Amino acid sequence: MTGRMPGLIVLFDVDGTLTAPRKAITPKMLQFMQDLRKVVTVGVVGGSDLVKISEQLGKSDTSCCAVISDYDYVFAENGLVAYKNGELIGKQNFKSFLGEEKLKELINFTLHYIADLDIPIKRGTFIEFRSGMLNVSPIGRNCSQEERDEFEKYDKVHNIRSKMVSVLREKFKHLNLTFSIGGQISFDVFPQGWDKTYCLRYLEDFPEIHFFGDKTYKGGNDYEIYESERTVGHTVTSPDDTAEQCKLHFLAKQAGDA
């Protein structure tokens, strides 16, 4: 790994940054990330669990073992599950933190809200329990890609997720939770401070940290790490935009220094 810029790491969101939403990384983008890794330390920080990240970022082998070796750092569930050089270095548990009774109260209220929600279609898996968070989807995560796309358009007009988040934030303000909208159909629920900045605790050896993400606006799941005083934030609009910005910031600079 000679030739890497010392003391610098580049972190990437997944959906909308390295891949199209819930799609697999393209061969072209995968090759670009391998080329980039030759000149900078590379990390991935996603809200999804490791299985979903592996499905999107893996090569032909989509096993978890493969993806954690393809990048220097892989932070699943915002960093609640953290890997460095293929080895697990940290894990946090939402259930233990919140307690069973409070967790049940939150889940029951959320399911009642979704049951009363009048939207064009509903499918299944409205709440997905992860190690470090709950992922809530008003339409249900079992919807097809076409249904995802249609819900995303519907949500932009009717603000289904943002209205639901406002209700939950007020109802459960005593639990000090963060509600973060991401992807096309869902939002994440986790304790305050368990956003993507959580992963930064593992990066004390890097005085310069760059982060690339598409949902960097307030309320988006990239906002906190984008705004962090510890990072240099970059807003992107697509994987192609990510690659172009990285070429400008890192590959062109490396070529100029050669």
TrEMBL record:
The active site is at D13, D15. Pathway: Nucleotide-sugar biosynthesis; GDP-alpha-D-mannose biosynthesis; alpha-D-mannose 1-phosphate from D-fructose 6-phosphate: step 2/2. It catalyses: alpha-D-mannose 1-phosphate = D-mannose 6-phosphate. One of its GO terms (cellular component) is cytosol. It is found in: Cytoplasm. It is an enzyme of class 5 (isomerase). The keyword Isomerase applies. One of its GO terms (biological process) is protein N-linked glycosylation. Alpha-D-mannose 1-phosphate binds at R22, R130, R141, R148, S186, D188. Its EC number is 5.4.2.8. GO terms for molecular function: metal ion binding; phosphomannomutase activity. It comes from the Eukaryota. Mg(2+) binds at D13, D15, D214, Y226, T231. Its cofactor is Mg(2+). Keywords: Cytoplasm, Isomerase, Magnesium, Metal-binding. Belongs to the eukaryotic PMM family. Homodimer. PANTHER family: PHOSPHOMANNOMUTASE. Catalyzes the interconversion of mannose-6-phosphate to mannose-1-phosphate, the precursor for the synthesis of GDP-mannose. GDP-mannose is an essential sugar nucleotide for the synthesis of D-mannose-containing cell wall polysaccharides (galactomannans and glucomannans), glycolipids, glycoproteins and the antioxidant L-ascorbate. This is Phosphomannomutase.
